[in-house]
Amino acid sequence: MKCKFCGNDLPEESKFCPSCGAPVEPEEKQEQSEQSAGAQQQENQNPYEYGVPGTDNGSGAQNENPYQYGSAGQDNENPYQYGSAGQNNENPYQYGSTGQNTSADYNANNGTYGQPQKPINGTTYLIFAIISTLLCCLPLGIVAIVYACKINSLQRSGDYAGAQNAAKKAKMFTIIGTVAALVVSIFYIIFAIVIGIGSSDFDDDPVSNVVENVIEDKNDSKKADDSDKSDKTAKTTEPAAASSGLGTSWDSYTVQINDKVMTFPCTKADVEAAGLSMDTEYTAENYMVNANEYELVYFMDANDNEIMAYAINNTDTAMEVKDCLIGGVSVDDYDLENGGLTVIFPGGIQMGASKDAVTGAYGEADDTYDGDSRSMYSWYSDDSYYKSCEIDFDAESGLVCMMTMQNFGQ
Q1: Are residues 275 and 374 in the same domain?
Q2: Alpha carbon distance 349, 322 (integer Å)
Q3: Which domain, by its residues, includes 6?
Q4: Is the dihedral of CA 185, 190, 195, 196 positive or negative?
Q5: Which has fewest Cβ within 10 Å: 6, 148, 156, 248?
Q6: For residues 187 and 26, which has the higher predicted lDDT (pLDDT)?
Q7: Comparing 123-127, 220-224, 341-345, which segment has the lowest mean pLDDT?
Q8: Buried residues in 215-234 as b, exposed as e (16+ CB within 10 A)
Q9: Are 402 and 388 in contact (CB under 8 A)?
Q10: Residue partners of 404: CB distance under 8 A and separation at least 6
Q11: CB 275 within 8 A of CB 258
């Protein structure tokens, strides 16, 4: 009788196999078991089936059946043995193995068995990174482009984990750059709106804006020279009475300088007839004024009082400033501080007049602005910005501190 597990001859009446130690069944039961196993083996045709007994190949070698159940002394060298250890998942027939894993699966999954991962489209990440760079945030957009360019090359080399990491960083920098640009844009819009609201009350007249800037520069220079002027003897004379030729409303465009009344636009000689001369150090007489443009000039008297005037060129060709017409004047209290020069506007308005006197003569202003240092009241003609009158009042005293009259004849 042979052992049903190792196939070696068994001594009679043995209860255990001396070779493998397996329990010995009675001969009749063993024959039935062998017949049942043989029939099952023929039916399944599975040479690796669980429980198939080994056979002696005639060489006399024992325990050489590679499919034998529970074979001992193999030092785990049986690749098909049930429960074999230390195989590191290299046994394709080991119990529980699916047999589905191939080297292609292994490489496509970055060293892990299973179904292949879905490829990453690096072009999509690159497009969004470029858009973010051009329209949003340049530094972060460039970083996003660098990572997006790595995605496809990493996938081709089999480094799927690296491609995933590059895609993640490209997406992150694209989003951060876009959000940062949106935040900056929002703050810029808010800032622009606030600045716009703060400046919306100013006079939009381009000529008046230029005049204000020039006058402020001149006033700063005059304040710096106060110490020098203190050495001069100021001539204090009573303001001249308004002439009968002076108009009563602002749109008469008349101004009286000392005892000379002029209507704008007038000639340079008309202003000089009032005892003034043009300051050629500020603007040379041969300075060319382009067609349909104007230049700011200054006229001074013997006491260094001065009046700013608009030298206008209403022709189609350039001409020297000395040949231009005078389209208006502007004067403030600093310009007349040396005394001896009187400037009167229509209705008898001059320096030191009250708001009530001005609005009583000119009516309600078309535009007003109340600043920290002065209030500006403006009146405009319906047909041109260059026909206007502006009276400024000192914020502290409420009296006239500056007067501007314009009529460019256009």
Answers
A1: yes
A2: 29
A3: 1-99
A4: positive
A5: 156
A6: 187
A7: 220-224
A8: beebeeebeeeeeeeeeeee
A9: no
A10: 208, 211, 328, 329, 330, 331, 388, 389, 390, 391
A11: yes
Over the stretch 94-104, which tens digit does the pLDDT of each residue have? 444 444 444 44
> What CA–CA distance (Å, rounded) separates 405 from 12?
142
Residues 94 and 155 in one domain: no
| Residue 182: HSE in the Cβ half-sphere, 13 Å Cα cutoff | 7
Residue 201 has pLDDT above 90, yes or no: no
Residue 35: its H or E element: helix 27-44
Which helix or strand (DSSP H or E) is residue 311 part of?
strand 306-313
Verify that 67 and 158 share a domain, yes or no.
Answer: no
Specify if 239 maps to a domain: yes
- Report d(CA 374, CA 396) in Å as an integer: 8
Mean pLDDT of all residues in 137-153: 85
Q: Using only C-alpha atoms, what is the Rg of the chain?
A: 53
On whether residue 150 sits in a domain, the answer given is yes
In the block, tokens 């050629």 appear at 280
Domain match, 152 and 256 both:
no
**Residue 266 in this model has a pLDDT that exceeds 70:** yes
User: Residue 25 corresponds to which amino acid?
Assistant: E
Work out the end-to-end distance of the chain between its first and last CA atoms, rounded to an integer number of angstroms: 135
Q: CB count, 10 Å around CB of 236?
A: 8
User: Rounded CA gap, 29 and 278, in Å?
Assistant: 141
Asked if pLDDT for residue 64 goes beyond 90, the answer is no
389 φ, ψ to 5°?
-140, 140
**Whether residue 294 sits in one domain with residue 193:** no
Contact 12, 27 (CB under 8 A): no
CA angle 375-364-353, nearest 5°? 55
Mean pLDDT of the chain: 76
Q: Are residues 64 and 133 in the same domain?
A: no
- The reported pTM is 0.45
CB atoms closer than 10 angstroms to residue 180: 15
